[in-house]
Amino acid sequence: MDATLRVRNAVETCDGITRAELAADLGLPLGTVTAAVSGLLRGGVLVERATRSAGQSRAGRPATVLVSAGRQRLVGTVIWSHGLLRAAVATYGGSILARREFAIVEENSDLDVLEPAWQFLGESGEGPLDRVVLGVAAPYQRGVGLPPGRLPAPGRGARGNEDRTAPEDPTVRFGFAPWLAPDPAAVLSRRLGVPVDVENDANLGALGEAHHGAGRGHRDQIYLKLGERSVGAGLLLNGALYRGASGFAGEIAHLHVDDQGPLCPCGARGCLSSRTRRPLLELMEHAYDRPLTFPEVLSLADADEPAPARVLRELGRALGRPLADLCTFLNPGLLVLDATLGGAGRHVLSGIAEQVELFCAPAVEAGLTLVNGSLGSDAEILGAVHLARTEAMSAVAEVVAS
After folding, report:
1. What is the pLDDT of residues 235-283, one digit of tens each?
2. FRET pair for 52, CA 20 to 30 Å: which of 4, 170, 202, 280?
3. Model-level pTM?
4. Of 400, 325, 333, which is closest to residue 355 (Cα–Cα)?
5. Please, are residues 228 and 294 in contact by the beta-carbon 8 Å criterion?
């Protein structure tokens, strides 16, 4: 019965799967899976569906996959970034059925900022949701929310000058969205009536590219996300997402690069973020005699306009120097660049590659591939779907174990 429950849940949380894939996903013997599947087929819980791969001969018998005989179980995804909400409804297999974007007011400092997305998920007409994943443009620790900091020492205003003898203060969150402290997952779950998982947006992008896009087949990889206002990274080590002890892993924007640099909202001084988007965009104003938006810079760079292309290469160099050290330390086989940059991403990759070649250990650099992602903004949605399936299967495994 235990194996049957796990097999049923695994089939219901995908768009079709073979017996061999089930055995691999669940870590069960193929014979055990086959026996459980036979019982579920006889009971009308599962059905087999013919599918023909691209290279399969039409004369041969088509392969079959197992699917649920009932309604599809659906996942709601909401990705929050500064000024924007992106909501979607998808199947567990990654088919996106509905989506919408909402501009939001930055000053809204409580959970109401997410309300337009919840309304869309409830009114999409695609059916009831099985669970929801919320992606956030901030570090996140399960059960805690935003990682806590320490209060500054008297008369001091920056981290690095904080009182390190003081205990961590859960009320200090250094400039990130206050509604993420404490962890909002339980409150949102009660609000929506389904389990809610919260995850960093770059981590979701990493999962999406790793399982559905350019990162497939690589167990050790770094995903680099570049947004209009932020930069972040997701780390997959030995095939698993690495979040760190307090959810701060991958916060590349907050690597220290300048002892005399400006203060950062995170509480530190001289973070890498001070050398990325805003200063480079200000340089563009002098070349074009007007302010340019980040999308405009991307469009001009994609057309090989000299100034924007150079700016993005410089951005790549600024990111590439600390990334080279990170690659030497972690030895990934792949670095995937956020595909939302479009064709302009090649200039960023060029700058990163230059620094990696110069400063990465030769043995590591020789085994490292740099690529553009292939999923665009769907990377985070598909990563959220993958996380939802992982959590759904873990929940059933815990029930079986108890």
Report:
1. 999 999 999 999 999 999 888 888 888 888 777 888 888 776 566 677 7
2. 4
3. 0.89
4. 325
5. yes
